[in-house]
């Protein structure tokens, strides 16, 4: 499936622009990490783009409908399993085992946290953001209270990298898609 076809599939099931920006953010993170690990950037990017394919229509049953949407569209079991694994321990019992699944698990919540950090910066941008800015907000439970920091920390552990490195790499990924995701701010 091409990216254009994947976008059309996403739009068939979703219309929320905030969810779209999140899909683009996770796609950017997945592409970035695919390059870092020498993996297939297009494949990983599509996993990121479509990871929440059923969320808008079935928020209370998230990931229980992903397979019935993705399989008829031509996605294989590996792709679908990867999508399902990002909700491990939250809304799915599919444990991330492949590095791609671990990256998706780790960056899904993190992209949202970094976006929240960007929105409160004077620049409203990730383009001038550093890891220390994100870490400063990390300990404030009231800030981006819906973000499960423990999931992000667990994802970093799964990947065998320090949390600071995961944050830094994800910031770099989001910089590459800042205009499309609304994270360019006024820079």
From TrEMBL:
The keyword Hydrolase belongs to this UniProt entry's keyword annotation: yes
A single MF term (Gene Ontology): hydrolase activity
One Pfam family linked to the record: HD
InterPro entries, per database record: HD/PDEase_dom, HD_domain, HDIG_dom
Record domain HD/PDEase: where: 15-122
Record key words, sorted: Hydrolase
SMART domains: HDc
Statement: the UniProt record of this protein carries the keyword Hydrolase: yes
PANTHER family tied to this protein: HDIG DOMAIN PROTEIN, METAL-DEPENDENT PHOSPHOHYDROLASE
NCBIfam families for this protein: HDIG
Protein name in UniProt: Metal dependent phosphohydrolase
Organism: uncultured spirochete
